[in-house]
Design brief:
Elements (H helix, E strand, L loop, with lengths): L1 H39 L5 H31 L11 H27 L7 H7 L2 H15 L3
Helix pairs in contact: 1-2, 1-3, 1-4, 2-3, 3-5
């Protein structure tokens, strides 16, 4: 099994990075759609914005998050790729779990928009839009710089 994982390692790593890019694009864009829906939804744009949110989640973000986890776990189980005695894989893992939680938090907010029950302001969504930025910085620095 280890030999097989080594042989596909570059392809799995490439697919993981591509999936992360797609997921991050959605995580950066979805809260912006929430801002517009919270601020402009009452002006007749709610239906269009809610539809855009749903398609972004279903068509791009859901497949991307599944692919991130599948390819990431495949990398995780490739022998010798991760030195678990270092701190960087643990900081990355914590940030990835937080990013996954944020994804599900956004999914719950989208369900509120669908039900017409959003109570959060555009300002709230502008602030929360910084969460994926902070988490992606932690992930990239953990993996590339490995400061710990």
């Amino acid at each position: 099994m280890a030999e097989f994982l080594f042989s596909i390692y570059p392809w799995v790593k490439a697919a993981h990075v591509i999936s992360v890019i797609a997921w991050m694009a959605g995580l950066f864009y979805l809260p912006r759609l929430f801002v517009h829906n919270a601020e402009q939804g009452d002006k007749g744009h709610a239906e269009l914005l809610t539809m855009m949110q749903g398609k972004l989640l279903k068509v791009i973000m859901r497949p991307a998050v599944v692919a991130v986890w599948v390819f990431g776990l495949t990398l995780l189980f490739t022998p010798g790729v991760i030195d678990w005695s270092s701190w960087w894989p643990w900081s990355k893992a914590a940030a990835v779990l937080a990013m996954t939680w944020f994804h599900h938090w956004c999914l719950a907010r989208q369900h509120e928009f669908v039900a017409g029950k959003n109570t959060r302001s555009g300002k709230h969504y502008r602030l929360i839009n910084e969460v994926p930025t902070v988490l992606v910085v932690v992930i990239v620095v953990s993996v590339i710089v490995r400061p710990f």
